[in-house]
């Protein structure tokens, strides 16, 4: 009896260690492009720039929007604009390269496969980042995907988007701006002093939580955790031992530097505003 070789439906193997990190500048740029999009555009798409770290992590550090038109069955990208913007970015930072593309919305759509195919020709295994620029319910849905091929025997049928781990990297100052961005409606942006005050309040709240946890462990109300204890010990050991007067001087010097930068930036904005008005008046005359 002749043996039969069954045709197996399978996914092309993909690296399970692929992950991505995104810097807040990328999210801010995407949200800004979404606000400035044309009236008829439902979403914004664009190119992600960054690098691939030695451990395989895709580090996304910058982005720019690409004009496009899309319908239910086709997507048209402005490829010339994409290449011109890429060349401009490479002149400023030659270490950055294309790592993928982004789109606003809750997830992948029917046209995402067509756009991903174009970026697959620009860079191998691009990452697809989706950002809910509307911050529905005050939360940002930010996800990253890679494409996995679905084949039947030797014939490739389609591509499936597989979500990968995503880490949003930000310092405390960026965290303040990101939290404000999620509210979607604010009366005014906080200045540096207000941002520092919010950071100190959050720091004090975290210290209170640590104090409460340590007291609960000492009193026997909570079972001790060696990992948490080691983390607290390492954190306390990393704090430099300086005298209160030296600490006050350090804080005051840093505060004076920040006030000087604010003063210089205010003067710069004033000069630019005057130059713009003078230029406008000269053109009218």
TrEMBL record:
The MPN domain, residue ranges: 20-151
Subcellular location(s) of the protein: Cytoplasm
Signal peptide: none
Superkingdom, natural source: Eukaryota
GO cellular component, one term: eukaryotic translation initiation factor 3 complex, eIF3m
One GO molecular-function entry: metallopeptidase activity
Example GO BP: formation of cytoplasmic translation initiation complex
Keywords from the UniProt entry: Cytoplasm, Initiation factor, Protein biosynthesis
Family: Belongs to the eIF-3 subunit F family.
Quaternary structure, from the entry: Component of the eukaryotic translation initiation factor 3 (eIF-3) complex.
Functional note: Component of the eukaryotic translation initiation factor 3 (eIF-3) complex, which is involved in protein synthesis of a specialized repertoire of mRNAs and, together with other initiation factors, stimulates binding of mRNA and methionyl-tRNAi to the 40S ribosome. The eIF-3 complex specifically targets and initiates translation of a subset of mRNAs involved in cell proliferation.
HAMAP family: eIF3f
Annotated protein name in UniProt: Eukaryotic translation initiation factor 3 subunit F
Organism: Actinidia chinensis var. chinensis
């Amino acid at each position: 009896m002749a043996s039969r070789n069954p045709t197996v439906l399978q996914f092309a193997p993909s690296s399970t260690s692929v992950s991505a990190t995104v810097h807040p500048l990328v999210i801010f740029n995407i949200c800004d492009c979404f606000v400035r999009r044309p009236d008829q555009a439902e979403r914004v798409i664009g190119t992600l720039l960054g690098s691939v770290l030695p451990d395989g992590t895709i580090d996304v550090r910058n982005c720019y929007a690409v004009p496009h038109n899309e319908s239910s069955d086709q997507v048209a990208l402005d490829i010339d604009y994409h290449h011109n913007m890429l060349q401009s970015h490479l002149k400023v930072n030659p270490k950055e390269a294309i790592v993928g593309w982004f789109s606003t919305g809750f997830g992948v759509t029917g046209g995402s496969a067509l756009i991903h195919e174009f970026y697959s020709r620009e860079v191998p295994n691009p990452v697809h980042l989706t950002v809910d620029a509307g911050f529905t319910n005050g939360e940002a849905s930010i996800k990253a995907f890679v494409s996995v091929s679905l084949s039947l025997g030797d014939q490739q049928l389609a591509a499936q988007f597989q979500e990968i781990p995503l880490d949003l990297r930000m310092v405390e100052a960026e965290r303040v701006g990101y939290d404000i961005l999620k509210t979607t409606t604010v009366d005014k942006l906080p200045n540096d002093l207000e941002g520092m005050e919010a950071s100190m309040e959050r720091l004090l709240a975290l210290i209170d939580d640590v104090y409460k946890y340590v007291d609960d462990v000492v009193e026997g109300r909570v079972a001790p955790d060696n990992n948490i204890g080691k983390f607290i010990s390492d954190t306390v050991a990393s704090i430099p031992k300086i005298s209160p007067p030296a600490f006050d001087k350090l804080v005051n010097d840093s505060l004076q530097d920040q006030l000087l930068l604010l003063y210089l930036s205010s003067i710069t904005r004033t000069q630019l505003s005057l130059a713009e008005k003078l230029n406008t008046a000269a053109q009218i005359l």
